[in-house]
Design goal:
Blueprint: H1 3-37, H2 50-53, H3 60-105
């Protein structure tokens, strides 16, 4: 091992270390400058919307409308079912009439 070579390595290590320290200091100054230049916006507590703050009894008209719509849909489905049943029965009766009773008259 060469003592001259060891001293050069030590010198290079110390230079690298001082360069790293300088880079870190420069980066820290950049970050501090960036933080200082960034505008700070005031914050406020999140407020619930007015509709959620209202007590349940003040929302009764909306609840009533919803209930009426549900009832109307149920009634419409029932009426449609009854109407479909009536049409089906009428159709079966008409087909039965055509097959059994109307065919006998023509003979």
């Amino acid at each position: 091992m060469n003592p001259h070579h060891d001293s050069k390595e030590e010198e290079l290590r110390s230079r690298e270390e001082s360069l790293r320290e300088r880079e870190i200091q420069i980066r820290m100054r950049e970050l501090e400058a960036e933080l200082e230049s960034t505008p700070v916006h005031p914050t406020s507590k999140h407020e619930e919307p007015l509709s959620k703050k209202r007590p349940w009894y003040k929302r009764l008209p909306e609840i009533g409308k919803f209930c009426l719509m549900v009832i109307a849909v149920i009634v419409m489905v029932r009426l449609a079912t009854w109407l479909a049943t009536a049409i089906l029965i009428f159709g079966i009766g008409w087909v039965g009439y055509k097959f059994f009773l109307d065919g006998d008259r023509n003979e």
